[in-house]
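Hi Y.,

Following your request, here is the sequence exactly as I used it, all 173 residues.
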Amino acid sequence: MRRQLCIVAACLCAASTAGAAELPARKAGQWEITMEFAGHHLPARTIRQCIDQATDKLMNKIGGEGSCSKREFSNVGATMAVDSVCTFGGATTTSHAVVTGSFDSAYTVDVTSTRNGGPPIPGMAPGGAMHMKIAAKWLGPCPADERPGDMMMGNGMKINVLDMQKAHRMAPQ
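Below is the corresponding structure, written out as tokens. Let me know if you'd prefer a different format.
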């Protein structure tokens, strides 16, 4: 379970260092997100997320925590590009992301990044480059048994990012 959470956290951070502050908000409801990793010993991961406006904003903020010495955002037609250099958790990540699609129905993110320093991430070589493709599609309203912040992992495990954030704030520093 810890390995699964580490991989998901790393993916969310990589995706959000791609430019969370500048990306439009996603439509509220349930999203299916598939992350594929090229050239690593990490299998593709598919998760479902239940979001509302507040949790979408929070998830972007969580991934954007840390400091970015560079964050350049450009928009050419329906394609957005983001170049960033950010430090998070003792690691510096240099990323280039290309985002296409609609945040109301379906979008893709193609991220190339290099991470230096920080704790190791399972399946990734230290200092190595990572190429990740994210495909997200809106499935509809959240199911009645899910609340904003819920993430359903491919193995059936459910976590809630709001609960994780609360637990992190309450943990002794």
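The two ends are 23 Å apart (CA to CA).

Thanks again,
Q.
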